[in-house]
Write a structure and sequence with these properties.
With about 300 residues, the chain is α/β, with parallel strands linked by helices. The protein has 10 helices and 14 strands. It has 2 domains: about 90 residues, Alpha-Beta Plaits, CATH 3.30.70; about 160 residues, Vaccinia Virus protein VP39 (Rossmann fold).
């Protein structure tokens, strides 16, 4: 039996979700998930935590106490059958150029000439549904019309969807996908198998590494990269600016997402200080924009 703790809070607190493992003395701290609001109520966000066992009152108080605006707090059981339905709900195929991301139930969505990517809803982020992933896929499709890339890094890979998309568009490339979460890397490797893509460090394969940023030896050894994908969050994107720039070849392209529209300028300026400049104008309207930059010197 899975249990959920859910409550509503304001947007600012939802966008700054804490890592409970760093805050609460729990053996198995839950992961918090914030759902985007109804457009009619943009400042009201739903936060949910999932538990394998019923969370006691102390745990509920500890978690909700981190959100000063928490209201409508509820603890409810979620049977396994309902969880499966919930995890798959709304996962219609997503198209971005030639890329089509789909679940096993929608394989027919990929037509002749499409780059189909089978991704199931599960434990890692990145089914193609979220605007951040979709934006990166669209950027990859657009870049694919202009050039081919030989060495590619996907930082914060989640399900591995962007690494796989990059290899679909650049068949002979060396690709490495990294994530700070070992569960995500397990999921990414399973998705490689599901999509009949080979795991490994040579051309036409995708290597994987558990690492924050570019700290893994495998990431450093494969540099310099002519394409880097980073679908994470604005603060780590800014913190990684120097390291990412150092790992890129002159003329290399960086695709970034995970930031909100009001964070675009700060993220872009952090990279501009390290010789990366926007390829296309920043999107002033999108709630979750995608930035594409190129390293000077190419």
């Amino acid at each position: 039996m899975t249990w959920t703790l859910s409550f509503w809070c304001n947007r600012a607190e939802a966008e700054a979700l804490p890592d409970l493992a760093d805050i609460l003395p729990l053996d198995e701290p839950p992961t918090l998930n914030a759902e985007e609001p109804d457009p009619a109520r943009p400042d009201e966000w739903l936060v949910t935590a999932y538990f394998a066992d019923w969370p006691d009152n102390t745990t509920v108080a500890q978690i909700t106490g981190l959100f000063t605006s928490a209201r409508d707090i509820a603890v409810t059981p979620l049977p396994e059958a309902d969880w499966t339905t919930l995890s798959q709900r709304g996962l219609a195929p997503v198209r971005a150029g030639r890329f089509v991301v789909h679940t096993a139930d929608h394989r027919q969505a990929a037509r002749t000439g499409d780059w189909g990517l089978a991704i199931e809803a599960g434990l890692a982020f990145g089914t193609g549904q979220h605007a951040t992933t979709h934006g990166c896929l669209k950027a990859l499709a657009r870049l694919g019309k202009r050039r081919r890339f030989g060495r590619i890094a996907d930082l914060g890979t989640g399900t591995g969807v962007l690494a796989m998309a990059a290899l679909r568009a650049n068949r002979s490339a060396q690709v490495i996908a990294s994530d700070i979460d070992p569960v995500a890397i397990d999921v990414a490797r399973e998705n490689l198998r599901r999509n009949q893509l080979a795991h490994g460090s040579c051309a036409g394969r995708i290597a994987t590494a558990v690492a924050p940023g570019l700290s893994a030896p495998a990431l450093r050894q494969m540099a310099p990269y002519d394409l880097v994908l980073a679908n994470i969050l604005a603060p780590p994107l800014i913190a990684l600016a120097r390291d990412v720039s150092a790992a890129m070849a002159p003329g290399g392209v960086l695709v970034m997402a995970g930031l909100l529209h009001h964070q675009q300028r700060a993220v872009a300026n952090a990279y501009r200080r390290h010789t990366l400049v926007p390829v296309w104008p920043m999107d002033r309207q999108a709630e979750w924009p995608c930035l594409v930059l190129v390293k000077k010197g190419g």
